[in-house]
Write a structure and sequence with these properties.
Elements lengths: L2 E4 L4 E4 L2 E3 L3 E3 L13 E6 L7 E6 L4 E7 L2 E6 L4 E6 L4 E5 L4 E5 L6 E6 L8 E2 L2 H8 L5
Antiparallel strand pairs: 1-2, 2-10, 3-4, 5-12, 6-11, 6-13, 7-10, 7-12, 8-9, 8-11
This protein binds dTDP-4-keto-6-deoxyglucose (T46).
């Protein structure tokens, strides 16, 4: 049974885990992933103290799983901000469009799997926080 937990600005889904001689986890489009997957990528071997992300996407939606180790994920919709830890391979956070996100506190063994709704296009990124806030109609900075 998959379970969905709301966070302040998004949600985390716990995908099914089959336990026998080991563990097998799986996800299906629609049931667990709310978009057709056009791309996936991994992030690993992050140097201590690194901050990754620091952008929002105009069109691309993503689900991010920390499939080994742990990270801190920060989300910001232009009005509110939240941070939480991801440390279970079966727990994926939904990254909607126009959601500023930052990943920090990478454990040395951390490995992220990200599935995305669209191919990589640099023009889809908003990498300047002030521009993001203006587009999101958020707080004055
Ligand atoms: C995101 C977070 C969670 C590609 O050429 N193709 C790709 O599919 C991706 C994902 C990246 N790249 C290039 C673009 C940059 O030259 O790889 C380089 C590093 O990308 P970036 O600095 O955006 O990496 P992160 O870890 O800050 O962000 C990544 C994703 O890019 C982003 O979409 O949401 O992970």
């Amino acid at each position: 049974m998959n379970q969905t937990r709301n966070t302040k600005l998004s949600y985390i889904i716990d995908i099914p885990v089959i336990v026998d001689e080991g563990k097998l986890m799986f996800a299906e489009i629609e049931k667990h992933i709310p978009f057709a997957i056009k791309r996936f990528y991994f992030i690993s071997d992050i140097i201590p103290g690194a901050i990754r992300g620091k952008h929002a996407h105009k069109k691309t939606k993503q689900m991010l799983f920390c499939i080994r180790g742990s990270i801190t994920m920060t989300l910001d919709n232009g009005k509110e901000r939240e941070s939480f830890k991801l440390d279970k391979p079966e727990s994926g956070v939904f990254l909607d469009t126009m959601m500023w996100h930052e990943m920090t506190d990478f454990s040395s063994d951390s490995l992220l799997l990200v599935v995305a709704s669209d191919p990589y296009v640099e023009e889809d990124y908003i990498r300047d926080y002030k521009t993001f806030i203006q587009l999101a109609g958020g707080k004055n900075i």
